[in-house]
Amino acid sequence: MDVGIFHKLLTSAIQKGASDIHLQAGYPPLMRVNGELLEVKYHPLTPEETSAVAEEILANTYRREKVDGLSEMDVSYGLEGQGRFRVNLFRQRGSISIVLRVIPISIKTFKELNLPPAMDQIGNLRRGLVLVAGATGNGKSTTLAAMIEHINETRRAHILTIEDPIEFLFRHKMSIISQRELGSDTASFGKALHACLRQDPDVIMIGEIRDAETVEIALKSAETGHLVLSSLHTTDAVKTIARLIGFYPPDQEASVRGRLADSLMAVLSLRLLPHKGQLGRIPAVELLRVTRTIQECIRDPAKTSDIPAYMLKGAEMYGMQTFDQHLLALIKEGKVDLDAAKLACSDPAELERALLMEG
Questions:
Q1: List of residues 6+ apart from 82 with CB closer than 8 A
Q2: What does DSSP assign to residue 275?
Q3: Which is it for the CA torsion 25, 28, 31, 37, positive or negative?
Q4: Residue of 114, 153, 50 whose CA lies nearest to 270
Q5: Which positions of the chain have pLDDT values less than 50?
Q6: What pLDDT score was predicted for residue 197?
Q7: Tens of pLDDT along 22-32?
Q8: Taking the CB of the first residue and of the last residue of the chain, which one, N or C, has fewer CB atoms within 10 A?
């Protein structure tokens, strides 16, 4: 596969609305379209071909490593005028494999992403910690980009992002945006976060919370009056809170719960489902907003499991919603079918009962 064919493959993926491209020796290229992996009409790739593509990708980044000594690496790759890609290079069974995540050039609004109306209020926050949760490929990066663009269009601020690698590219509008990439601009999330507080940021976006050091600096940044946005690989709000607390030793749990109750503003959790009757996927969204009642649930481990019940009660006043609430609405609106909803919901039996009760 030469550079020209590689670029044609990337262009085709963008045009087809693919989310990912897989290149692995012994198989034809694969594209993930609407959540399904589909084969591209091409011969099975050889190890030499995947290595050649990896060399092309590395030659166009700051990374100067050779493919021969590569085990795994995250980089970004751009196709001028077409789009950008988050790339993971890794070795399996002795040969190089490549997975490219398609990053659109345009940044969608909350409405275009089918996110709840309360997202406008969350985007207008001036301080605190806001987290986007979900499995890989469920739209966390796209949602964070929408939040940054909302701030960029509505207020004068310095937005600082720390990413591995940089995904969406932003242009200054009302705000100025500094984007730092691990490897080329900074050695680690920890060093970048320690330094960022001296760079006069109003908003700090951390691509992903990975360790205790990142959690600690994110909390400190939120406690000192910054708005901190980040993502976690968790499935819902309660598990997100548990994951953050779990980064700390048990003897610090009470202290961390208190700090988290004071700093956490919202948790948005995402699960993408096939859109009924049309191509594409639509998110089922759980939205937790931290009220005084939710703060008490975070502080008291015996009450943390009560959070979903309070989310149901806070739907009208605060715009909160559980996954099952939103899935019920999506089914009634004809946007998601029942089988897909049952696979994504927290309690399939309760979902069916709710549908029966509503006729």
A1: 10, 11, 14, 105
A2: P
A3: negative
A4: 114
A5: none
A6: 83
A7: 999 999 999 99
A8: C
**Which pLDDT score, from 0 to 100, does residue 63 have?**
60
The contacts of residue 321 (CB under 8 Å, 6+ apart) are 116, 285, 286, 287, 311, 315
Which residue intervals of the chain are DSSP H helices?
Answer: 3-16, 47-59, 119-123, 140-154, 189-196, 212-223, 237-246, 253-263, 292-299, 307-313, 315-318, 323-332, 338-344, 348-357
For the entire predicted model, the pTM comes to: 0.87
What confidence score (pLDDT) does residue 67 get? 79
Question: What pLDDT is attached to residue 95?
Answer: 92
CA-to-CA distance for 170 and 117, rounded, in angstroms? 23
In this prediction, residue 310 carries a pLDDT of 95
CB 205 within 8 A of CB 159: yes
The burial class, CB within 10 Å (0-12 / 13-18 / 19+), for 71 is exposed
**Domains of the chain with bracketed CATH:** 3-103 (3.30.450.90), 119-321 (3.40.50.300)
DSSP string, 217-232: HHHHHHHTT-EEEEEE
Cα–Cα distance, 20 to 11 (Å, whole number): 12
Given a contact cutoff of 8 angstroms between Cβ atoms, the answer to whether 232 and 209 are in contact is yes
Sequence letter at residue 168: F
